[in-house]
Amino acid sequence: MISIQLPDGSKREFPQPVTVADVAASIGAGLAKAALGGRVGPPGATKLVDTSHLIDKDESLAIVTAKDPDGLDLIRHSTAHLLAYAVKELFPEAQVTIGPVIENGFFYDFAYKRPFTPEDLAAIEKKMTELAAKDEKVTRRVLPRDEAVKYFKDMGEAYKAEIIGSIPEGQDVSLYREGAFEDLCRGPHVPSTGKLKFFKLMKVAGAYWRGDHRNEMLQRIYGTAWATKEELAQYLTMLEEAEKRDHRKLGRELDLFHIDDHAPGMVFWHPKGWAIWQGVEQYMRKVYQDNGYQEVKGP
Hints:
By secondary structure, this protein is α+β, with helices and mostly antiparallel strands. The chain folds into 3 domains: about 1-65, Ubiquitin-like (UB roll), CATH 3.10.20; about 70-240, Threonyl-trna Synthetase, Chain A, domain 2 (Threonyl-tRNA Synthetase, Chain A, domain 2, 2-Layer Sandwich); about 245-295, no CATH class. About 40% of the residues lie in helices and about 25% in strands. The chain contains 9 helices and 17 strands. It has helices at about 20-25, 30-35, 70-90, 120-135, 145-155, 160-165, 230-245, 245-255, 270-290; strands at about 1-5, 10-15, 20, 35-40, 45-50, 55, 60-65, 95, 100, 105-110, 140-145, 170-180, 180-185, 200-210, 215-225, 255-260, 265-270. The strands form 5 sheets. It has a 5-stranded mixed sheet with strand order 2-1-7-4-5. Strands 8, 9, 10, 14 and 15 form a 5-stranded antiparallel sheet that branches. The protein has a 3-stranded antiparallel sheet with strand order 11-12-13. α3 crosses α4 (about 120-135). The longest helix has 22 residues, at about 70-90. It is globular. About 25% of the residues are buried.
């Protein structure tokens, strides 16, 4: 008999090993549908796992949903893989490299023969939506390191093969598959692509392979993903409002100053902008004087 202790202190007994998904289903259909993963282990030493993770001994378990911070990380991590899936569908010659979660989103680096255009990003995002709508199951498998290197080399994925080749000999590596796309990853991931609904690709930028300027320049596609439509809309609105208040944009539009590419970090004030600067400076001088401060100047 296997005993599973839940966060509220209650326990559930099972006659044989069960998955995280099985435990969620035993609690209720709603939780089974909402489950994105699980956190197993004692307090202070827990581990985030897939819903397919098999529990074969007495264990503590917290079901992870989109309402949890872990759930949002799972969504963003899995959306990065969805991005790579879409790119490979549209641009089969592109090679995939890495795709981590970052603050408010994710990115994925690709090696491709030409730069991705804004039109490409729109097409990729559309393809991501189509793939997510298929609700394809995300599955995990484990391969020996050397077998995984050969697997990716045979697919023409030289960057993935290089990453795996840097792993110590004798270690196994995990791969995750969704539909026709399989990628190297430690995981965990959401149980199916249908859990990924609210995302947007933001921009593309250059990035050196392994962060080394001596290596090839890759293309980094940035994206954001959220648990709800409302959260995505709020984030995009926040970015729009921040852009309106960007001092570089305001300086240009109001003819206050400019920054020259030949002197990065140096501000060239225009008459209107310098008048504002002087006004603020004189006001602060008076405030200091009225409060007994004396002005000095350092080197």
